[in-house]
Write a structure and sequence with these properties.
The chain is α/β, with parallel strands linked by helices. 35% of the residues lie in helices and 21% in strands.
Length: 243
């Protein structure tokens, strides 16, 4: 038996895989909890902010403008979606990124085909990455990029100081900030190593786990546009509804 398979089997004995939604053993997301997720139909959602059933007149973002050109969200942020997001983010359950990406992919598949030059994740704050030992934003973006067959880029750096979850719309907008840095690309030229700085792609599919007010996506978009990106569209796993 290969060593990785043996290790995986031993880990299952010690800490069996359970569903993020109901804790039933066997999978990180069982079929029942998957079916409980309220899917958002893109054609019936607001094209600007991704709110469901707002394709004609959106009550969620009325009077607002965003620097990104479109948003699509996969599910409504109601159970079991919050548990999935929390376990992926706070418990660093990396396998949930694959499950979330599988659910997100159909909503943005047409953007990946012929438009998106790269998939970029909204990175977590350095303090959060240090605490969790995992950047959930980059992990989700990499999983979605693999699902869509598009390259992933990591030009964004988070400068956010405070946790966004307890903040209102105005405070979120003032709190969150990003910088966009050229990515190094290394290649061998004979016996020497050449390092070149590559600017952000022209068309970026920006990925986040939750879309609440749009403040985080807007701040990340402004950083990308300032660095030379031409257009940004947003994909999120879940959409919080204001009610």
């Amino acid at each position: 038996m290969p060593l990785p398979t043996l290790i995986e089997g031993l880990l299952e004995l010690v800490a069996p895989t359970t569903c993020a939604g109901c804790e039933w053993p066997g999978a990180v997301l069982c079929e029942t909890c998957d079916s409980r997720l309220e899917r958002i139909v893109p054609e019936r959602a607001c094209p600007a902010c991704g709110a469901p059933e707002c394709h004609r007149r959106c009550h969620e973002c009325v009077g607002r403008t965003f620097p990104f050109t479109a948003t699509r969200c996969a599910v409504v942020f109601e159970e079991p979606a919050p548990r999935i997001v929390i376990l992926h983010k706070e418990a660093a359950e990396r396998r949930l990124a694959t499950a979330m990406a599988q659910i997100m992919a159909p909503t943005v598949a047409e953007w990946a085909d012929g438009w998106a030059d790269a998939v970029v994740g909204v990175p977590a704050a350095p303090s959060a990455v240090s605490r969790r030992a995992y950047d959930h934003g980059s992990g989700l973006a990499a999983a979605l990029a693999a699902r869509l067959g598009r390259p992933v880029a990591r030009p964004l750096r988070c400068l956010t100081a405070r946790d966004q979850r307890a903040l209102g719309r105005a405070a979120r907008a003032a709190n969150v900030a990003f910088t966009c840095e050229p990515e190094p690309r290394r290649r061998l030229l004979g016996s020497s190593l050449e390092v070149a700085a590559v600017m952000p792609p022209a068309n970026v599919l920006l990925v986040d786990d939750v879309f609440t007010t749009g403040a985080t996506a807007a701040a990340a978009t402004r950083a990308l546009l300032a660095a030379g990106t031409r257009e940004v569209r947003v994909a999120a796993f879940a959409r919080v509804l204001r009610g």
